[in-house]
């Protein structure tokens, strides 16, 4: 039962995780690639699409919310099989010995993936190194052991499911698996009660988390999730922030109208634009969410700014806009430089935004100008943009 | 005849299983080599440590806590109250385990400066949820006790 839930749940976690990896477009440019040594593990990479606009909200909200919801199921599964840890003899055959080693990868890898993910969404960066390679390569180690385990246990699982529809028998499989206590205490809980407790734990975690991905009035319900309950400040700029201006080291002097220029480079050379010059250009609107790799997201915000393809046209890319390298004023941070693919530049909804919800951007949302691209992970929506370099990367 | 004590050679087992596990280890090793590039010692410590910490510390700890509740209530002759303590305690403990960095305030400073949100509410909200869980459990117990008393046939002395 727990095994079946995990079989489906962890498969969904793995697939949504791989999708999130693809959403960063790591194959596009070295600046996007936190795992340059990936080799064949990036075999499936594809150009991340720009629609539907809520695509990354959905895939990453599912990844994080489902991962948190599955914690009690994982713990219960480990609880239910713990006697096997001490099973003797240690190995009945070479295959059995290898299977037990594989179980270490399964349990260790699973706990590693859940732990690094849960710590990362709480900004608790205590794990040994950068989150991206740890969580990505760790996922492959875990999934290798997970698939082997699932296949090896398929016959037993099929028997167990068949057995449940047979009302007569005893739990033969548990006995065969060595999981029946030899001298059991008097029971304090039924099987149904135990499963109910696990399900209740999952439901409680789900209900106190999912609101941070739904946004709007539901955010209030996410009582313990990192981006739950409240929005920062009020007014048009009062929606969730990933990194504030202060955290990124952006000062008012950096962004002052006298100091700030947008430097745009392309086929025909370089132009430097003041903010007033940008505001005088043909401004467009798009309603797009912010969706973070940490699983939280905002409802659609109403952005106003210059379409990226118009900026490309300004420097000689009139038809077929190319890729672009976006550089921020940020002096540090893993994504102070990020590349966008040609399909993202060409999308009419992709903006260099200057305003949001009818007001100027606040410093925390990227004043003087920020990128907003449909369906892209939040960190690719670079804030405090200083330079755009169009061309093949 | 005395039994042979020398170890017998280990039988090989199912070739299909061996093949499957071989493939699994090959993939795990390929990804593992990249995982360990970040510093193999600390990563190994994390993976093996996670399994050991869970199986040899966390799990025995909550098994012992559970046993203490069962035995304690049993000694007081109130063993049937076990679920009314166990369920809210387990749910509250689960929330604490998952959201420990936020509830404990370990990341409060980074959280505040990165997100612009206040890190102060997490512990309070967790305590409130815990109170509601135990309160709900007590309420359920009271309702059930009342209903049982109503349906019990009057005792004849």
Task: Give a verbal description of the structure.
The longest helix of chain A is centred in the middle third of the chain and has 34 residues, at 131-164. Chain A starts with a helix and ends with a strand. Chain A has 13 helices and ten strands. With 393 residues, chain A is α+β, with helices and mostly antiparallel strands. With 157 residues, chain B is mostly helical. Helix content of chain B is 75%, strand content 0%. The model of chain B has no long low-confidence stretch (mean pLDDT 89). At the A-B interface, helix 3, helix 4, helix 5 and helix 7 of A face helix 1, helix 2, helix 3, helix 4 and helix 5 of B. Chain B: It comes from Streptomyces pyxinicus. Chain B: Keywords: Membrane, Transmembrane, Transmembrane helix. Chain B: This is Lipoprotein.
- By secondary-structure content and strand pairing, the structural class of chain A works out as alpha+beta
Number of helices of chain B: 6
Query: Order of SSEs of chain B, N→C?
Result: HHHHHH
Helix content of chain A: 40-55%
Strand order of the largest sheet of chain A: 2-1-10-5-6
Helix content percent band of chain B? over 70%
Quick overview of this protein structure:
The complex is a heterodimer of chains A (393) and B (157). Chain A is an alpha+beta fold and 393 residues long.
